Amino acid sequence: MVAGAATAAPVVQLPEGGRAVEVLPKGILCGPVRGGWTLSADGRSLKPPAKAEDGARALELKVADDEAGCATATDTLVVVATGPFPRIDAASTTFYPDDGRLELKGTGLKSVAITWSGTPRGAEPLHPLMEGQDVCLEPSGPSDCAVPVTPGLPTDATLSWLPPFARTGPDVTTYDANGRFLDDEFFRLRPGRTVLTRPLVQSSGVDLSKGPGYVAVTHSEAIASVECGSARCEVAEGAVSIRNVPGVNPTVALRLRLTPRVFFARGDALETSVAETLPVLACPLTAVEGTVLRDAEDSALVMRLDAACAHDPRALLWTVNGARARVERVVKATEGTYVLLRTRGTDEPQVTVTATTSRVDGTVVASETAETKPLPDPRATLELPGHGSIDFVPTNRPAEMTVASNGGQGRFVLRPLGGAYTVTTREQATLVQGEPTAGGFVSLRFGYRLPTLPAELATTDLFLTSERVQRAVREASVPANVEGLVEFVCADKEGHDETLSPSRPHRLDYAMRNTCRVIIHRERLKPEDGNQEITLRIDVTKSDGSSRGESHVEQRLFLRPKGEVRVIPVQGNLGQYDRILVQVAHVADESRYALSTVDRTGLPSAQWTAIVRGGMFRLYTMATIPAGLYRATQPTGQLAINFGVLSRLALLNNEGQERLLGIELGLMGLGLVPQSGDIQFPPTLAAVLGLGLRVPIGPGAAVGAQAWIAREFRGDITRRTSGDPSTDTVVPSSKWSFIFGPSISVGNVGFNL
Q: Where does the source fall among the domains of life (predicted)?
C-alpha cells in the first residue's frame, strides 16, 4: 500500500552531487531530511547528496502550505537521487529490433535503464502496443553494453534512456546536475544504426487472383521506396501492394530501398536495399507428381488449383513454357480443382505453367515451375493361354498381354490401333487380336495413365507411346488334337463303316480288308487353331514282317480351317494277317506353331493299328537243307548233306505267325555225300513224314529241328572191310527208318486254312 501511494505521488529526480533545485513553486517541504539530502531554509529547494545511501536514495516528504500545516499534511512528494548521468554515443549505438537487442556505446552505462514503446506494422490490422524497460546490468567493456528489448519492435520505436535508479512516468520530473529541467526529448535515444536480421519479405509469392497483390513485409515503416520492374507497386501498412503484373512474366522482382540509418544484415554485410524475386501465385498451383514428363509428344500434365481459388480454369489462358496449352478436362475434388492440360510435349528439364486472365489484361492467376521426369518405356509380353509366349500379334485368336514399365508411377494401357489390332478385356486380363485383313508388322501402342488421380482422370491417357520393337501380324497356329481331325474307317463284317479308335489294336474281316481309308476332316479345324501341317504315314506289313510296298503312303498335308473332307484309301490287295499301321503327327516347326515353354513333351500325334483276320492253319511248301541227319534205325549213322522239298502244316496265332511245331511231309535226298566211316549209306531219295520245329530268321527263312519217319528208296547198305569196294559186305537193314537233326529251310509258298 505504501508502494502504491509512493507511486501515485509526484516524483522529482535529482542526480547525485548536483545543485540544489527548487522542487516546489509554493508551499514547503516538511522536514526533516536524511541521508545527505539538504533542505533549504525556505523549505522549497533540495540538494541531493554527493553519494546517496541505499536506504535514503528515495525520500517521501510531506507537502504543506506552512510549517504549522506539516502536522496534518496529507500531500506528499517523492524525491529520488539518481546515479550520475551517462555519456551515450547515439551515433555508435545499434538497434536490432528483430533480435530484441540494443547495443549501447558510451561511458557510465552501468545501471542505465532503457525504455521502449512501439506498435509493429504487419499484415494484421491490429497489433498491440509493445512497451517495456530493462537495465544495463554489467557493461561488456568500458564503453559497451547490450540491453535486451522486446523482439519484434518497429524500427521507429520510441527508445529512451534513464540514469541509474531513475523512475519514469507522467508525474516524474527530472533535473540535471546544474538544476535544469529535462523534458522527455532529452532522454530520447536515436540509434545511429538500425539493423534488420529477419527476412524483410515474408511472402513466397504474389497473389493477384482477386485484384492487387500484397507482399507481406516485416518492417514496412523502414521501406523508403519500392521498385518492381514493369509492374506497379507501392508501400502499404505492413505490405507492398503490386498490380498490373504482365502475364508473360511469371515472377516479380522487388527492390526495396530502406530509410536512412536502417540496414539489412546479409551475413556480415549491411545493405541499404533488399532485392527479392517472387513467383506470381495468384492461386496456389501444384503439379501432380508423376504427370510432368518430358520427351513425349502430345502429352498431358495435371495441375491442381487450391480449393479456395474461385476462377474457372476453362476461362483462363494456360501456357506451358510460354506455349499455349489446351484445357482438356477439369475435375473438382475436396482437395482442389484438377486441370488436365494437353501440350505438344517438351524436352526441357523443367516446365513453368502459367494461367492468366486474358492476353489483353495479362493478370497472372496462377504459376508453378516443376521438374520433368524421364518418359517411361512399356515392356510388353504376349502369351497364348496354355501355349506359352509368342512374339507376334495373332489374327485368328486373342493373346493375353502383360506390360511393365521401367519407371514412373503410372501404368500402361494397351490402346487399339485401327487396321492393325483390336483390344478387349476379359476377367481383368487384356487381350489383343490382329484384324483378319492385317498383315506385315506393327508396334503395340500404349496409353500412360496415373491411377492415383481422381476417377475421371485416372482413365485418361496422359500420352501415347509405341513399343521400340515391331511385331509381325499373322495367324497363330496352335497344334490341334489330330484325333479330332483324322479318322481311320473300315467296314465291319456286315459292311457298315466303323471308326477305329487310335492306340488300340483292331481286327478286320478278311472280306472287308479293302474297305479301310483315312479321312481328313478339315471342316473340323477351328479358325482360332490356325493352319496345321501334319504328316500322314500308312504302312502295310505282311505276316512274315515284309512290307507291302504298293500300300505305302507318306504325305505332308497342309490343312486350312473350314476346308473340305479328304479321303485317302489304303491301297493294295491286302492279305490275311496283313498289319495296317496309320500314323499322323504334326510337323515339328516352332516358327509355325505357338508351343508352350513349360510343357515341351511334343506335338499331338495319333496312331491306328488294324490286322486282317486269317485262317488258323498254314499249309505251305519249302526247300529244306538239313546239314546233318542222324539215322537212329540200325544200322545207325550220320547222313551228310541232305536236300529236299517239304510241305508243312502249322498252327497260326492271332498275329498270323506260325507256331514253332508243325507237321511236315515231303521228299528228301539223303546222304548226298559219301561217308568216311565203316557203314556206307548210299545216296537215296526218301519220303518223310514227321514233326518239325522251325524258328524264323528272316522273310521266308528259318532254322529248325526235325524228327521224321522215312521210307527210303535206296540200294543196300554196305560195310567197308579192306578198302576194296568189291569186297564190302552188305549190312541187313529196313527200308523204313527214323531220322532226326537240324536243318535250314527257305521258302514259304502256300496258303492259310
A: Bacteria
